[in-house]
């Protein structure tokens, strides 16, 4: 159920995800229709980490809905000097209509949501990137049509982006395969939770360390950076481990001509993906980036527009 907050796709019903995608398509097709949807509302955007897409798409999205976004770097807030997340959430709730936050530990976004009286949106945590997955499935829908039964192959680290794609896949009937070295495959704890849900939904979650086997016949080949924000110290070890998993023309040719290429961006070109693939006809990475705007506008309308219903 879409409750007060949006911290993960895990807690949504399939109908909620479908509704958000449908509204996103509508908002995208007819943005003027929604220009007063969040009139005079203010979204605070708290960032513990860097961002280009999330920051700009949320700020522009609020403006286009008749409100405004307020960028708040956590270093500049009193948070950086030890004010608690709980007090920050309570105080911000007295000024703002919604909070979007990008955090390291997922428990930080949970703490904000627990103490905020306004909706809290996860703009990426170490565990999940649900806004990204919403935009990704919107993009898939536009490019490959009906999602049910399609196969998304994720090549790389079983990180926040992968986790949210899995939950989205379970809700929308998309089979998700991951191709990754054993140590970077999904954890037992994660699989224990998602496997029964996938089975109940008739969705296949496959795991392999063979990149060619992983991609064969997939509708979407998706990758992300090998070292996420906060993992800079592991960069050299990861670069070595993931080398055979680069998405290049050879791997794309194994996937087949139907396969489209996706990446949440930012990309480390020449590492997880080559220029040839990122800039190929098959690549839909910039549609994906654009769809962050439309998907998040739909999300904010549903979460923050509630009080006006
Ligand atoms: N994909 C994504 O979240 O990009 P940013 O880190 O630039 O926000
Ligand atoms: N997995 C990446 C995604 C960036 C949008 C990270 O967490 O850094």
Description:
With 309 residues, the protein is α/β, with parallel strands linked by helices. It folds into two domains: 9-129 and 291-304, Aspartate/ornithine carbamoyltransferase (Rossmann fold, 3-Layer(aba) Sandwich); 132-289, Rossmann fold (3-Layer(aba) Sandwich). It has helices at residues 14-29, 53-64, 85-95, 106-115, 130-144, 160-172, 188-201, 211-215, 235-242, 249-255, 275-278, 285-304; strands spanning 42-47, 68-73, 98-102, 120-122, 151-155, 175-179, 205-208, 220-223, 260-263. The strands form two sheets. Strands 7-6-5-8-9 form a five-stranded parallel β-sheet. It has a four-stranded parallel β-sheet with strand order 2-1-3-4, sandwiched between helices. Strand 1 (42-47), helix 2 (53-64) and strand 2 form a beta-alpha-beta unit. The chain is globular and about 55 Å long. The mean pLDDT is 97. The site of phosphoric acid mono(formamide)ester has 9 residues, from helix 2. Phosphoric acid mono(formamide)ester binds next to helix 2.
What ligands are attached or bound here? Answer: phosphoric acid mono(formamide)ester, norvaline
Q: How big a fraction of the residues is strand?
A: 5-15%
Report the structural category: alpha/beta
Number of strands: 9
Number of helices: 12
CATH class of the largest domain: Alpha Beta
The level of helicity is: 40-55%
N/C terminus separation: 18 Å
CATH architecture of the largest domain: 3-Layer(aba) Sandwich
Approximate shape: globular
Biggest sheet strand order reads 7-6-5-8-9
Largest sheet: 5 strands, parallel
- Domains counted in the coordinates: how many? 2
The overall pLDDT average reads: 97
From the structure provided, what is the oligomeric state, counting identical versus distinct chains? single chain
**What is the CATH T-level topology of the largest domain?**
Rossmann fold
String of helices and strands: HEHEHEHEHEHEHEHEHHEHH
CATH superfamily of the largest domain: Aspartate/ornithine carbamoyltransferase
CA radius of gyration: 19 Å
Q: Which ranges are low-confidence, i.e. pLDDT below 50, for 5 or more consecutive residues?
A: none
